[in-house]
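Collaborator request, handled under Task 6.
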Amino acid sequence: MALRVADNTGMSDVGRQRDANEDSYVVAPPLFAVADGMGGAQAGEVASKTAAGVFEEGATGDGTPEQRLTSLVREANRRIFEMAVADDSKRGMGTTLTAAILEGDEVTVAHVGDSRAYRMRDGDLDQLTHDHSLVAELERSGQISPEDAEHHPQRSIITRALGPEPDVEVDAHTHTARPGDLYVICSDGLTGMISDDEMASILRGTSSLDEAAESLVKAANQSGGKDNITVVLFSVKEGEAKAKEDDTLTGSETIHQGLTADDVQAAVEEQEQAARVSPVPPPAGATRTTSATGTRAPSEPKGSRMKALIRALVTLLVVGAIGAAAVLGARQVYFVGTNDAGLVTVYRGLPYELPLGIDLYTEQYASSVPARTIGKTRRDRVLDHEWRSRDDAEDLVRQLERGTLELGSAAP
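Structure tokens returned to the collaborator:
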């Protein structure tokens, strides 16, 4: 059974505690990749962008998908290593790299570092890659527990990357795909801030891949946003792959580096503006009347225009009523999240944002507790955005500051 990419998207955000974005990603169906750069003086940005550039060139050639992806990873490693050797300012730079390609009814993954690939099938999220990090290896060998790994002081040390050595060991494996599968490739800026359970909940609760990507990035930022956050999503369905010209992204659009949520919004607004000023094609079945002065579509009857106006007015009234109800409700409830500095914070209102940048919440109290210092289980319970009373929210944060919070007391 042949499968093809049904939908795809990618998003990258600088996070809340970094000045620059050193992540890069590629969305070039059926090929996808995420690279998380490292190194001073913007060398990490150069490394990740170089790796992404190699994958932008495509996984064509002879051999199996595993062989072709492995060849691309090693080519990226060679280029980064040679750049570092030639330029002292880039010495030691490197990048992680996780890539996937859909071919036939299989998804092949190639992987180096601690960026990850996941598959969601029938509502269950499974990690397809193993982190190449010191803490992950200690955990796999049984020397530390998963809870200890979550807060280990050396959890950011990776054992494999592209660039530091002239050659690199690549993990490559192939998985049988099914219609409806959703695949996630992301940097550790996402997985370091939210749990797999929270990621799965977000993916199950969103109606589109664009919405899912935005929600994942937002959740990572609300949990502290200590690193750049990048996520690529693609789903599969039955059918032969479309021709190249029908792909969602082609050419220079396939590689993105340092793109923020604001950049994405600006691009969307630009496209909407272009759509408003472009000629609108006639509806299906309409005919065109050609004269010596040009081409025009038949005019719409006045009755139809009146009905359309009435529908628009009704829609505005309904949206206004919903907005008023939301604003009123926002005055009555509180929730716990994190502020721009990554501190656990009490907010008044609802944990939602309306279009045009309207927030339904305001900051009430910022604690002295960084979200990243809380144990994984407590963090999942405290930063769940449950609606609470003011007393409950403030008491929860005070217990956290005093170190007296019990797991059972996190729920309202």
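The cover message to the collaborator said: "The mean pLDDT is 79. Residues 334-410 form one domain. Please let us know whether this matches your experimental observations."
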